[in-house]
Specification:
The structure is a homotetramer. By secondary structure, chain A is of the alpha+beta class. Chain A has 2 domains: about 140 residues, Four Helix Bundle (Hemerythrin (Met), subunit A) (Up-down Bundle); about 210 residues, Alpha-Beta Complex (paralog of FGE (formylglycine-generating enzyme)), CATH 3.90.1580.10. Chain A contains 10 helices and 12 strands. The first copy, chain A, has a 4-stranded mixed beta sheet with strand order 10-9-8-11. In chain A, strands 1-4-12 form a 3-stranded antiparallel beta sheet. In chain A, helix 2 packs parallel to helix 4. Chain A is globular. The termini of chain A are far apart. Chains in contact: A-B, A-C, B-D, C-D. The interface between A and C is medium-sized, with 28 and 29 residues.
Chain lengths: ~375, ~375, ~375, ~375
């Protein structure tokens, strides 16, 4: 079954580049993003380095220069190509990367015939890692395409087509509760230890904020009123001339993976920074939930919340920090989540770009509060 | 009594520049710091703008250009001179600033003969504000002096001369506790509402970390081992070539307000960033306390903790965010604390540079995790 | 015959990308360089805009967005895509660019059946322009490849394989002489008016400086002795840690269009800035010729100089400025050369990357004195 | 007589700071400028280092840290404080600098009782150097003051009060002529060797361009028409939003050493970059003279040109480069002029800020073409 999952995840990554031109594979729109070809290489490097090399006798590790190019941020594995210059890596060419993928897949298939438990865990981690990069790849393509005068479309089928439901304020009891992953399934190290948290009673909105609602914020001078903003966010508004979410274009259009198209007023607003989410919440007299509230509410109102939680990631008011008692995994794998626990904010939920089955109630996504290229929206609390 | 306090606080600010040369009054070592003359002007502007102008009939407000120059960050009061360029303001000259101070003091003395309650509150706020700037002025002078080849000394009497006591791990019970300001005295808006927090049992060190202990971290490769650091901190280490706390010089000296001098191995280590504090804690198998733990422990072990809490500010593991139910004050004064609640970390305690009587158990100081010019040290938890 | 030339030049541009992977077509190593695909598009845009649009009735101009993308610097033609972001233009894909080339070529073939004289001139200009871009394309590929860990090779046949001959100091009489283009053939506007110049007698070296000679400069501390350098050059040495010509690698290798290979000690040194050329000349007690000396010497010693003048461009001591009486051409074409006459230095000769027949004794090439990615070497005077 | 000159020059420098507040002595408005106190120190360091130390037995050289702070750019003398951070040097205080000046003056007075010829030369150089810094000090004060909201005035007497005379085109014969310093008097190394130059006949305007004339250029869209500008200059116009000469304010005012005042339409336009001078000349169908033309014309029309040549420096079309046969002086003094011969343009004449007697027909001043804070205007040729 892990083998099936492996095949499916790996095949899906390759399917993602089908709509692209060869030149698109090199496209890195900004330092935070990576070219599609790099994602295909990096996820393969992950298996090569952390699974096959240590666990397959006689496995021929990839060229150290490939390792140098496709290591993302693992200090323990050695030096890396600087992230902002991934877009300069025209080589290896895609046919070489795809050949490498096949070789690594074959190694994994062999290894999974009779895997020791630690290999199973590592492969599971590698698959979840690859799923994260599938979402990143799509985010990054959208970013790279939106910078081009020709406004390329990735695929008409890749777009979000949901609308926001009627708003309902769901009452949530307070008291002593627990958050964090529980049970047997896969989870990242940052989701544990499960621990106790005290919450005061609160209410959570049943729906995401819509484009229409956000347009009212703008019409009311939202981007011009310093008093609605964190000081740091206000500086960004000034400096970057933010006047709307990242991909809004003109009065009623937006740029999407399906190209430029009409903006659906009833669709949930997306691609905004934490600062914009926070300012919006302040403007309408509400606030963002903290991550414990968010997770607690999912326990209370799973049905009501579940649908929207697969539409857009949702900013919380929680800075990303370790759960009490958190210990990163031993070795290079321990760099996966733990070392990013500063100056970022937690997002909860998942998005329409997230591979199905990858989402989890205890999942902790995180980005700097200024980031806007993720599929993030907002849900209010009060 | 408020009048006495006013006189004392205002006089103390002026006493702080006595050891300086006139040229020092213009010195702005970096964008984060301000020239001493600016601090004297800004604290006066605060009273002029928020107390005298609204509450004294016929009071002649300061020149709008002075207001432009001495407004720090109050958007509601209008545009401001850019902070990084405060060091270019050679005018008004110090004699003009001192004359302004006297005029404003006279206005305040009149007003305080029979003040309405809101004036009393505002003057209290203004005095606490001025005390904060007294500490900032000294931090900024130290920064400005440490950049100069001649290594000027501010004053032999301004230096810290305490040593770290023997380390004791103070046991702290967990459970449901409360933090936040309580009682009648002055407090900033960010210290309330007092609210409930759940804590697991923990231990807090009775003493600050010493220079000797920190030197062991360095000798053990502390600044060369990526695995000890947050990713963001590690990037700063590389980029800025950090190899020791900010003011350490050579093997056994340091730069201080008393000039360059021997480093006392038993003195508490200071002038380090949150990243260094965090890495040190990780290195020795401990951690930083969060702010609720810190405050809770003060209630349990006030006597044991009190002395060191007047020596150095202490980094906590808590990102600076609003207490549940926080509401900033109405008007421009509401910009005082609330709009800085992103991308900063909380420090607790106070320092030897803090004016006596300004410290408070519920006091929440905050700085970006990369800042090193404050009088910050660290106390461990586990 | 112009038609033959057109076919040959246009075909040669397309032949230049044959050794490249599709991803290489997007590669822009630095802001000064452009991706290969962009060069193919821009040279086509030149004909589309300056020849076909004004001179072919009913010609359907290219999409305004393509014009926006492929305009290099012609203000009169409208806004342009920012040069440093050409590497983000994954679209149009190469197959679309090649189709455009074909369409434009067909238009040109028709037009050249019976061209008015101004069309002939414009097409000649367009072909010389395209030849310049052929050399730029190769320079830019070399730049983009040298940044990659995998050190790709463009083609084994693209490399320079000449050696420096024995040095001879050619005596050159002074007096009143003339420089500038003369005769009927094609020339750029910056090569005229031909005009009188007074020269004192001088000597010019018969050969280019070799790798061996330059290595002696390095061994003698050439990059460490401030007294040999212009102040501006010395700052660049410090800031960029220059220690050798741009593509030298290790003790005896270099990076070339044929990949990394042994450095031939007898080959002429290349890929150095004007500052390095100037410092080298000072070090060995000679100097760079000015451009009038260079051109005058070609008249006197054509045979002796001719061979090396097809090997590498040669830095002169002349700042790039208009010849007395210079007038740029009317219209957008006038932006071709005239507006770059500040802060650049003149290079004379041509290089092994220059298309055969494109070189001319009166040719004035120009680059900022800090540039190192052109095929530039140096010839001494005294 | 040299002694008298010494006393006068040295006293004049100190007189220049009389109108300043102590804080102004620290003021460095931009990296290109220096604080007034630094100028007083640096000119003293020059005598200390190049005259007294090598030529006075037993002379106690200044503190190496002072030398480090007050060395401007002499690599041969050792490391220097970074120029952009001179404004951070609050110490030594002015009273210490003045005491040093006095000590150095005493040393010079002793030495000049019976000086060897090389000392005489060095002192002459030192005095001419100090005169240059007198002009720089005033330029830098103007720059530092114009950045302040309070718009301080230096002195009502320091302002220029001349008007432009009627324009006359002075005919200048061409042919073989000589330029460069001749005769016995003091000159800088860059003014020799005197050498032959061929000139075609030309005409030079008898007067400087006026504010009125320049306002017509602006009214005609001068700052909005790319075709009038060098590409590099056009980029600066866009980037810096240049719309007028540096110190013009509003419709009819300007900032001067006498503070903000009415702009005299008949006064010569000043404080413009080479790019603005060049664009203006192109706009009105004329051009800038080259430096040989300028100097040659002074020989022909001394009387007609002399007056305006003491009003403003005049941009020429000549890049700053060595005269044929130029050799810098031996030792550190050789860094005075020679190493700046790249990427700068020559200005000729002198200005109302230049100390009387410092000007010379063969004088070559030089600044980057983007600089605007010098007292530069323009005179046309055709």
């Amino acid at each position: 079954m892990l083998l099936d999952e492996l095949r499916e995840v790996r095949r899906r990554s390759e399917a993602l580049i089908a709509p692209l031109e060869p030149e698109d594979l090199m496209l890195q729109g900004m330092a935070d993003a990576s070219p599609p070809k790099w994602h295909l290489g990096h996820t393969t490097w992950f298996f090569d380095t952390f699974v096959l090399q240590p666990h397959t006798e006689g496995f021929e590790a990839c060229d150290p220069l490939w390792s140098y190019q496709f290591n993302s941020y693992y200090e323990a594995v050695g030096a890396r190509h600087p992230r902002p210059q991934r877009g300069l890596l025209s080589r290896p060419a895609i046919h070489e990367v795809l050949a490498w993928r096949q070789k690594v897949d074959e190694g994994l298939e062999d290894l999974l015939q009779n895997p020791p438990p630690e290999v199973t865990s590592l492969v599971e981690l590698g698959l979840n890692h690859e799923q994260q990069h599938q979402e990143l790849l799509l985010m990054d393509v959208l970013d790279g395409f939106h910078r081009q005068p020709l406004e390329p479309a990735y695929s008409a089928h890749a777009e979000l087509t949901v609308q926001v439901g009627p708003e309902d304020w769901l009452p949530c009891t307070g008291g002593l509760t627990e958050i964090g992953h529980t049970g047997e399934g896969f989870h990242f190290d940052n989701e544990v230890p499960r621990h106790r948290v005290w919450l005061e009673p609160f209410e959570l909105s049943s729906s995401l904020v819509s484009n229409t609602a956000f347009a009212e914020f703008i019409a009311d001078g939202g981007y011009e009123r310093a008093e609605l903003w964190m000081s740091e966010g206000w500086a960004l508004v000034q400096q970057n001339h933010w006047q709307a979410p990242r991909y809004w274009r003109g009065d009623d259009e937006e740029f999407t993976l399906a190209g430029r198209r009409q903006r659906d007023p009833q669709a949930p607003v997306r691609h905004l920074s934490w600062f914009e989410a926070d300012a919006y919440a302040r403007w309408c007299g509400a606030r963002l939930p903290n991550e414990a509230e968010w997770e607690h509410a999912c326990g209370l109102h799973g049905n009501a919340l579940q649908h929207a939680n697969r539409v857009l990631w949702q900013w919380t008011s929680s800075a990303y920090s370790p759960y009490p008692g958190f210990r990163p995994a031993a070795g290079a794998i321990g760099e996966y989540n733990g070392k990013f626990m500063s100056s970022q904010m937690v997002l909860r939920g998942s998005s329409w770009l997230t591979p199905v089955g990858h989402e989890r109630t205890s999942y902790r996504n995180f980005f700097p509060p200024s980031s806007r290229w993720m599929a993030a929206g907002l849900r209010l609390a009060r």
